[in-house]
What does this fold into?
Amino acid sequence: MVREPVLVLVLAALTPGCSLILDFSDKAGVHDASLDGPYTKDQCDYKEPNDTIDTAAVIDPAVDMGPGAICKVDTGEDDDYYKFTVAAGINKVTIKLIDAPGGGDLDLKLFDGTGQVIGQSRNFSDSETLVCPAVSPACPSLAAGDYVFEVLPGSPVNLNNYTFSVTLE
It folds into this structure.
């Protein structure tokens, strides 16, 4: 039985008028495609420009939740930064990031008002959660003030859309 399928393949390949040529070179690729990832232009543009800690988009945790996207860019890496305020009397802050299933892994970092990383969540699932205060992943209690969280690709080639939530309790 093994010989019959092989023979059929050989005969099909030799049949006149039947050919298959695959070209995987760079010149064969589509270079004018509008997007190259699991996201829309609106998701890529959400709260832009917010690509650095200094240009972080100010959000209202009760209203702003995305959807945003880590998109393909010409140079560097597309990271998204969001700034929120913790008021006096807040005892617990939860930041949740939900990646679209099947897309690239995205991670989450939290910065204090001086730009120092004070917490991060970097697992390999479709969601990241950072609770402050907590032990794993580590994050201190957050005093009243401004904080910035960053959504970044788990590796430089990871592209994906996402939603987020910031819960202040």
The chain has one domain: 37-168. Residues 43 and 68 are 4 Å apart (CA to CA). Helices lie at 3-14, 41-45.
